[in-house]
Amino acid sequence: MPGSLPATAETSWPKDVGIVALEIYFPSQYVDQVELEKFDGASAGKYTIGLGQSKMGFCSDREDINSLCLTVVQHLMERNNLTYDCIGRLEVGTETIIDKSKSVKTVLMQLFEDSGNTDVEGIDTTNACYGGTAALFNAVNWVESSSWDGRYALVVAGDIAVYATGSARPTGGAGAIAMLVGPNATLVFERGLRGTHMQHAYDFYKPDMVSEYPVVDGKLSIQCYLSALDRCYSTYRKKICAQWQNEGMDKHFTLNDFGYMIFHSPYCKLVQKSLARLLLNDFISDSNPNTESGIYTGLDSFRDVKLEDTYFDRDVEKAFLKASAEIFDEKTKASLLVSRENGNMYTPSVYGCLASVLAQYSPQELAGQRIGVFSYGSGFAATLYSIKVSQDAMPGSSLDKLTSGLSDLKARLDSRKNVSPGVFADNMKLREETHHLANYIPQGSADDLFPGTWYLVRVDEKHRRYYARTSLMSDGPLQAALESVHSSTANEVLWVMCYTNPIT
């Protein structure tokens, strides 16, 4: 069974550690980017063509980071018929902070109460959009360490991305991803193949503790992202070439060695430019590129450019976007389904791209492929790493089950409610005015939430948050049924998120 403890666990290195199962959640409502362009008075195509965005999911005041993570964790556990006592580590990556002390992970532990399992390591990790990847690395490292006790690790990445009125607002979004980590996995982390770059910059940050909105230096943020991509790719290539040499292979690594390449996606257009930039890296590092035919045709005039001089060079960008168009279509375009239709989810963004790939390709197309993953978080931290997909694509295999579990992704996106830009703006205003209020009852309706969604019922005078869950339809995709809950009275509330007498 994927993730099960090997018989010789005491003496063996766990084999094929990686992602065993994956679940995604996004809000049940969205605003159309074409309509938002008109509402904002922006030029036609600014959001849709310029940013590459189609729709943007958003939350009312009924959903917060706790409810997003509660929902996606319970969905993953139910869909995979898992019991909570099989989890030994729970890691959360988020930058949506609603408490400066209490972690989201401790909130999620209430899902474990009936199982009696309190022996669960891990807490929250925060660094802009990189927190989910750091949490995932922590989980993988735990399974591969002497601390591992044979149980699964569970990783949750979730965020609500909202911006003040202005040019950044259409790059928002919301959602959460849950990933089950263990040995004998379907998506295996390639050991020793991580290229990381970390540096100090104020490109995007959230210094105002009473506001959800970040401070953004757009131009600097793009430069930081692209420079980190360059550095991470260079480091990754050196490491994999060193591995190949140890195995007796003398060859250079290029984009062609990735079956698929996915990126953290603030907006889809940046991802397309990033794929083109990796081709630029390949071109510059090639000692003798063929510019007469093939992919580098006509690029000889860029032979001597320096990467650090090209972040905003339109000629370089245009040339390599054109040269990489076919590679983009083959290796990256499909990964942008969730990003294009739901927007930037921050920490889950790159894993939404992973879910998009798994949802749109067959097990046979995915089997044995190497997937490159570039994760970036402002401030800034970035890693490029790779995962190998299981070779077994037979019906009933772990890969078949993983892709089948995500096969309804497009239908779920299409089933959301289209909300007018005016209503969207009203929701943003409401969140702005009520963020961190005590003794507050949310005004949004829970009626339109997806089945099985956790939502905020009230915040009491001590800022303690109470949640309930919408009912599960008996013929829905989830495998377990719970009784319907309502928020009309305090007696019907299922969760209270803090102890009455907390210990600090």
TrEMBL record:
| Hydroxymethylglutaryl-coenzyme A synthase N-terminal domain residues | 13-185
Hey, which pathway is this one from? Metabolic intermediate biosynthesis; (R)-mevalonate biosynthesis; (R)-mevalonate from acetyl-CoA: step 2/3
Residue numbers binding CoA: S221, K269, K273
What reaction gets catalysed by this protein? Answer: acetoacetyl-CoA + acetyl-CoA + H2O = (3S)-3-hydroxy-3-methylglutaryl-CoA + CoA + H(+)
**Tell me, what's a Pfam family for it?**
HMG_CoA_synt_C
> If you read the UniProt record, what top EC class would you report for this enzyme, in one word?
transferase
UniProt KW Membrane keyword: no
Query: What Enzyme Commission number does this protein have?
Result: 2.3.3.10
Recorded family membership: Belongs to the thiolase-like superfamily. HMG-CoA synthase family.
Protein name, entry field: Hydroxymethylglutaryl-CoA synthase
